[in-house]
Design a protein that fits this description.
By secondary structure, the protein is α/β, with parallel strands linked by helices. It has nine helices and ten strands. The strands form two sheets. Strands 1-2-4-3-5-6-9-10 form an eight-stranded mixed sheet, sandwiched between helices. β3, α1 and β4 form a beta-alpha-beta unit.
């Protein structure tokens, strides 16, 4: 069963969908499901999660971060601290639902949503477990890997410097195409649609560059953390998740899988499904 809902975060109305098993007990464990960079709640990875998890006995809330999808907020301005605040507001909403056991709420994020999940859980003990798919540890390394040729690195650095200068002068930062910030290979661009944001403020790149997820991850322990990544991921290199894992504390597990890509939760690969189910049964069971 599903219900279109809204909730408040930072004075803005965010749009979400609340899912429960068709038949099931009250006091359900629940997941907050978070999309990636400039995505939305109806992206293929999010739709897979909210279809599969209720079958396993979990409630789910997938939602649009501020400025994304159907949520309020300025389009094309992604600020980690604000998305972390949105995640905490989503936890507030789940905890308010009579169907949900407020003491059993977990987070799942893909790509940008993965590092938001890690940072939000580090600061909010209500998050009892985290699944982080396709994230990274150090943003400087993440962007250096993306813009790895001298020409691309120079272009990205010039964009950052120009944006910082304009913001310091009290001006608005310029805009940039999403692929100038996070390049995506042509073969994977089918994962974007008309709702996906394609143009961003350069302030987005600056705020993300200054954000370091690996500084947060150890604070999750001893709560369980699953880090999962595609071995051949060329959007976010698997070394990003390896760095995140290297800084994690106890009860963190790392999975690197071949044969899938950056959008693995949209591929319905049985190995991914089985790994997730086994991990959830062990660390965050539905019963």
């Amino acid at each position: 069963m599903q219900e279109n809902i809204t909730f408040q975060s930072g004075g803005l109305t965010l749009s979400g969908v609340f899912h429960t098993p068709d038949e099931g007990p009250k006091n359900l464990p629940a997941f907050v499901i978070m999309h990636g960079f400039g995505g939305h709640k109806n992206g293929p990875p999010q739709l897979w999660s909210t279809s599969q998890f209720p079958q396993w006995g979990y409630a789910c809330l997938n939602f649009d971060f501020r400025g994304c999808g159907e949520s309020e907020g300025p389009r094309g301005l992604v600020v980690p601290a604000e998305e972390i605040a949105d995640c905490k507001a989503a936890i507030d909403y789940l905890a308010s639902r009579p169907e949900v056991d407020a003491s059993r709420i977990a987070l799942l994020g893909t790509s940008y949503g993965a590092v938001v999940a890690v940072a939000a859980a580090a600061d909010d003990m209500r998050a009892q477990a985290v699944i982080a798919q396709g994230g990274w540890g150090a943003s400087e390394i993440f962007f250096a890997d993306l813009h790895h040729t001298p020409e691309a690195a120079s272009k990205f650095s010039a964009m950052i410097e120009d944006g910082r200068a304009k913001l310091a002068a009290g001006d608005e930062a310029p805009r940039a195409h999403r692929f100038d910030i996070v390049p995506i290979p042509e073969a994977l661009r089918a994962n974007f649609d008309d709702i996906s944001i394609m143009e961003f403020s350069v302030e987005t790149a600056i705020e993300t560059l200054d954000f370091c997820p690996q500084d947060y991850v150890a604070k999750l322990a001893p709560r369980p953390l699953m880090i999962i990544h595609a071995a051949a991921d060329i959007v976010v290199r698997p070394s990003g998740s390896m760095d995140l894992f290297a800084h994690a504390g106890e009860n963190a597990e790392l999975y690197i899988l071949s044969g899938v890509d950056h959008f693995m939760f949209a591929e319905n690969d049985p190995r991914v499904i089985n790994i997730l189910k086994d991990w959830m049964d062990k660390y965050f069971p539905s019963t």
